[in-house]
Design a protein that fits this description.
single chain; mainly beta; Rubrerythrin, domain 2; three-stranded antiparallel beta sheet; globular
Amino acid sequence: MSTTVASAPCPECEADVSMPRQPLAGEVVRCPDCSAELEVTSTAPIKLEPAPTVEEDWGE
């Protein structure tokens, strides 16, 4: 049995994203419904934003 400590709505699909512990700012979580990668941008209250994509810099 898992216990939900924190949750917030997914900004992509509005599904409830549950977390088993209090998240840290900058942490990346995945939406269980749409599989979007989300970044925790605020911890009080918890706010999620789409995580930035990491692009290859090709040694620049």
